[in-house]
Amino acid sequence: MSIAEIDLHSALKKHFGFSQFKGLQEEVIKNVVAGNNTFVIMPTGGGKSLCYQLPALIAEGTAIVVSPLIALMKNQVDAIRAVSEHEGVAHVLNSSLNKTEVARVKDDITSGITKLLYVAPESLTKEEYVDFLRTVKISFMAVDEAHCISEWGHDFRPEYRNLKTIIKRIGDDIPIVGLTATATPKVQEDILKSLGMPNAVTFKDSFNRPNLYYEVRPKTKTVDADIIRFVKQNEGKSGIIYCLSRKRVEELAQVLQVNGVKAVPYHAGLDAKTRVKHQDMFLMEDTDVVVATIAFGMGIDKPDVRFVIHHDIPKSIESYYQETGRAGRDGGEGHCLAYYAYKDIEKLEKFMAGKPVAEQEIGHALLQEVVAFAETSVSRRKFILHYFGEEFDNETGEGGNMDDNVRHPKKQVEAKDDVRI
Ligand code: ADP
Ligand code: MG
């Protein structure tokens, strides 16, 4: 082990209390510390934050971290402060700060105390901030949730588009670290291009989740009864059921309750108090099931979610992967069950009708992948990983027999001699 390696390990222990790096973290961190442009692709929960936090803490100067969600930035800042000697080690710079607070942040940066400065992309458009940041030592720029830059991503944010120009204005040769959990080749290409770092060293973790079992069932009139049966067979286990509409969420939660299942609804139409209450009930195991729209899940860290059911098929494979990914975080069993009917695809198509043409085209292409996934007779895992640019061999790969198509192969309906695939 070289001295640098020992140093990284002791820094890991000192700042975060961990004794091992996870996955590719150490290699990534070495690359960031060396001042290279770096592109990190890891699944959610893979430990991306540490890939910029640790280098920031040991580098000279301040690292700027761009992140789209104020709540997540605040969480990270609090966590870093909790293990640091000086509160000024991490700051958030945003529009909610008053003059005195901004002055304090600037002071801490200038005096070299601040190692991590979190900013929302829209704050970076403020001349005053950019002019100030030009005058101080910036170690590197981390762009978290970098897929927000791509229209092909599931969470496009127009403000992310200007980042390249802004970074250049802050400094000509600031190393850039892009991080995302979106693994589609199209989005990756967009990120590298939009951030202006074609030569970035790319680190990509596998997206395989070997402990998740993937299953798609045809959606018929008896879908509710089918779900009730499934949930009852899994009594006492934690699960999430995703529905497309708030109305369906309410209905299904009620149907489950009437059938003696501990279930609560969650969607953006409920008042904040109720949402927090239902989320807490789930975390504290006062309820087994949350029936929810996609508003539920971001940042929810419940390790023992045993099943994720999609009452309605999601609008992209990425959404499906993210949502099912909330099952089995602890490495234990995780059953991912999706109901599919083509008319639901048509419904999703209709939702896009009013949107700009370019957006509709992208939405349509993403949906076609969902159709292919739902209707495929090849391994679901193989399909998902292929979508993310990964080769998977069901014979040798972990979790190779963990989906319906592998366990119960469909009969080849069109097995005529003259048919070539
Ligand atoms: P991501 O941003 O990739 O979704 P996070 O950075 O939020 O992931 O990290 C996910 C979890 O993994 C956090 O709880 C974090 O504390 C933990 N973690 C990160 N690195 C390590 C490590 N080296 N050892 C143990 N836990 C880690
Ligand atoms: Mg993250």
Plain-language structure description:
This protein has 421 residues and is an alpha/beta fold. The strands form 2 sheets. Strands 3-4-2-5-6-1-7 form a 7-stranded parallel sheet, sandwiched between helices. Helix 11 links the parallel strand 10 and strand 11. It is globular. Bound molecules: adenosine-5'-diphosphate and magnesium ion. Magnesium ion (MG) binds next to loops. Keywords: ATP-binding, DNA-binding, Helicase, Hydrolase, Isomerase, Metal-binding, Nucleotide-binding.
Radius of gyration: 23 Å
Largest sheet: 7 strands, parallel
Structure ligands:
adenosine-5'-diphosphate, magnesium ion
Mean pLDDT: 93
Shape: globular
- H/E element order: HHEHEHEHEHEHEHEEHEHEHEEHEHHHH
Instruction: Report how far the terminal alpha carbons are from each other.
Output: 51 Å
Quaternary structure of the protein? single chain
Number of helices: 16
- The low-pLDDT segments are 414-421
Biggest sheet strand order reads 3-4-2-5-6-1-7
Helix content: 40-55%
Hey, roughly how much beta strand do the residues contain? Answer: 15-25%
E-strand count = 13
Provide the structure class.
alpha/beta
